[in-house]
Amino acid sequence: MQGEGKSVDGEIERNQWKAFLDEFSRRNQSRPTCIEVIGENIGAQKEEELLPLSAVSFEPKGAAAGSVEIILGGKTAADPRHLTHTVFNVRRIVTITGVESLEDGLGIEDAEGTKTLLLFKVLPEIPENTSDAR
What we know:
- This protein has one domain (7-120): PH-domain like, CATH 2.30.29.
- Helix content is 9%, strand content 49%.
- The protein has one helix at residues 17-28, and strands at 7-11, 32-39, 43-59, 67-73, 82-87, 90-97, 103-110, 115-120.
- An 8-stranded antiparallel beta sheet has the order 1-6-7-8-2-3-4-5.
- Strand 3 and strand 4 form a beta hairpin.
- The longest helix is centred in the first third of the chain and has 12 residues, at 17-28.
């Protein structure tokens, strides 16, 4: 799985998914995201961009057993946007790293081979000098 020049770092063992995703969520909470879904029948589809990460969780039991839920959204009244994306029948979870070996996201593959990429985005900074000095 690859997205925008990023590389796969390593596959997470299934028995570690819950603990890994809990820690991943803590490390990356509030980072701006992009979700891309890539499938044979749908091609590549961008589902959202720049919503902050709230959490990623694995459901090991119950009706949703084997699913991963990605929860995104603002946490204030000023930013009420919210999105929950669920991947059912997850087969693989891999970390995605960038050129500096920083954690740049997750790749999640379902039983049919559809891949969901949760990628972290870097917001542009405001330059110190906004006009040319004369």
